Amino acid sequence: MLKRILWAALAMIGIVVAVLAWNTWRLSSRQLDVKTIAPLALERDAVAARLAGALKFRTISDAASGDTNAEQFVAMQAYLEQAFPRLHATLKREMVGHSMLFTWQGSDPQARPVMWLAHQDVVPVAPGTEASWQQPPFDGVVKDGFVWGRGSWDDKGSLVAQMEAVETLLAQGYQPRATLYLGFGADEEVGGRRGAVEIARLLKSRGVQLDYILDEGMLVTQGIMNGIARPVALIGVAEKGYASVNLAVQTAPGHSSMPPQKTAIGAISAALAALEKQQMPVELRGVARDMFDSIAPEMQGMNRVVLSNLWLFAPVVKQQMAQAPGTNAVLRTTTALTVVHAGNKDNVLPGRADAVVNFRIRPGDSVAGVMAHVRDAVNNDEVHAELDAGASEPSPVSPMESAQYALINRTIREVFNDAVVAPGIVIGATDARHYKDVSQHVYRFSPVRAGKDDLPRFHGTNERLGVDNYLEAIRFYVQLARNGQ
Fold this sequence. Notes:
Aminopeptidase, 2 domains, 17 strands, alpha+beta, 8-stranded mixed sheet, single chain, 14 helices, Alpha-Beta Plaits
C-alpha cells in the first residue's frame, strides 16, 4: 500500500514537472520584429543647450492660483519661440490660460488627428536641500554628459524633445498626413484642472476625436526588474485612480491626569493601524498579468519557469511582489497614511483627532470600493470617514491589441532596439487621464532610460537627463511621427 502511494506521488510530481517544462518551453516571445534604423543625426551640443535653456525658468505651478509664477511661464514660452522658429511659424498656437495647444495641420483631412502631451510646470525644490544639488536646480547646466536641473526629466525633457522633433521634421520638408496636436499643460503637477481639462474640453467642443494620445508615463528601465538583463520599456495603458479619505474622531476634551479608557488619539490610531494592516487585495490579473505575460518569455532560469506557470506559482509571486513598494503598487490599490493631527498640549486630552489616508486605486477597483473597505477595516462608528475633494476613478484601460498600441510598440523597438516592450500601469497621475472623452487610445510612455539610481531624482534632488538619453527621446518622437503616416 505504501509503495503504491509512493509511486502515485512520484507520478504526480512527474506530471507537474512535465507541465512546468512544457509551459516554459512553449512560451514564445511577444516582441515585435523590426528592422534596425540608422540613428538620426542631431547637433548634440546645440540640442542639449536648448533643453538647458528651458530649465532656467522657475515654472512652479500652484493649485490655489493659475497666476503664480506667471511671468516665468511667459518668459519660457518666449524662449521656446526663439529656440524653435520653424515650429512657431508653421504650427498654430492657442493659449489656454498659461497652457499651450499647438496644431500642425495634416495633409489628409480625413485622417484622425493624433496628440502628444507634455507639461511646462515643475515641482519646487524641497526647502533645505538646495545645497545638496551638484548643480543649481534652475541654472540649466550641461556638464559631464548630463543636462542638470529641475524638470529635465519631469517633464520639460519630453516637451522640448517633442519641439525638437517637429523642428527637425519641418527642416526636412516633412508634413504629417494626420494633424498633430501638441498639448503642453501648465498645471499638471497640481492636477491639470486649468490646463489639460480645459484643452480637452476645447477639443471636445470642436468635435475632435483623436486616433491616439501619448503622454509622459512609463520609462525604459534598466536593472530594475529582477530576472531580466535587458532594458524593459513599459507602455502605460492605464493609470491608477486617486482618493484621500479624511478620518475624524470627536470626543470630550479633558485633563491628562484622568484619562478615560477610550481617547480620540487612541481611536484614530486604532483606525490607522487597522487600515495599514488590512490592505486591499493583491491581484495578479488585468494589465499586471499582461505585463508579466509579455516579459516572461524574455527571462532566463527560474524566473521564466515561475512566470510561465502562474497557474501554480501565482500565490508565491503575489506574496513576493507585495514586499517591494514598486511592485506592490502595481498589483493592488495602495494605502498610505499621510497626515495626522491631534492635541496641542502635553497635559490636555484633545477632543478631536484627524487623519488623512491616501489611496491609489488600481484599475478594477473604484472610489466606492475604497470607501467600503475603509468602513469595513475601521469597523468603528466613532470614526467618521469622509471622501476628500479631488478623488478620481482609475482611467480606462486602453487597448493593447490595436494599431495604435502597435505603432508605439514598433517605434520603441526601432529606437531602443535592445528593450523588451510590455504594457504597464502608471501608478501616479498624468494629464492623460483628462482626455478620455476625446480618444479611446490613451498611452503613457516617456522615451528615456532609467536605472535604480535615477528613480529618486524624480521630484527629488539632482534631477538630470543624460544627453545621449535625450537624443534618443528626440529620435523616438521623429520616428513616431514618420511611422504614423
